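re the bet — no i am not wrong, look at it urself. input seq straight from the record:
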Amino acid sequence: MESPFPVALDEWLTPAETSRLTKLSVSTLKDKRWRGTGPSYRKLSPGKGGRIRYRRGDVLAWLENGDATRDELVA
């Protein structure tokens, strides 16, 4: 059954929103960015404290491809 609320795959998510979607902590997502093993992201401003955003479609594709290991998921 299709949802009556379409999901915008091009929606940009904050790290906190991505954390809820992936069930990974924000710090785990940060570590995965550093290691280059997480979902694609964009840095919107320069520097160490630059704003990070994830595209919903990229995150869902990353989850579907099995790139998130089961032991990393938060219960």
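see?? Residues 70-75 have pLDDT under 50 and may be disordered. told u. also The CA atoms of residues 22 and 71 lie 13 Å apart. so pay up
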